[in-house]
Amino acid sequence: MKLYKNEAAFKQDAVAYIRRLGYQVTEIESGNTQVGIPDTVVTTPEGDVWIEFKRTKYNMPQKEVRVSWRPGQQAWALMHYKSSATRHPALTLIAFDDCIAGLWVMKHYPNNIVPVSDFAYIGTSVKDIFKGGRG
Predict the structure, then answer these.
(1) Prediction pTM value
(2) Domains, the chain, ranges and CATH?
């Protein structure tokens, strides 16, 4: 089972759903932006949420995930978290073949390896992620 063919399809579905929830969504991707800045920023009543979208071509492993952050992405997310007045972390959303997982980036992951237990959200649809919860 593949939930999404590619990252673009995943992002398009997620952004459309977030907009239906009534939030402002700004897509950032540009060759002129600073290295590491996430794909998208969502403005909510609680503050801005920066989101980096990823698509992998395998099922979610049981123990750990190697996130395909490009150089600078994890560092930007961590610096944003540490310097933000609201202490609101950036979110990495990953579409696996069998689920979608959300990770709030609040610490450094050497070699981009993240324990599955660190993911805040795991679901089978974009709605699952934005409702919150695991499973």
Answers:
(1) 0.89
(2) 7-119 (3.40.1350.10)
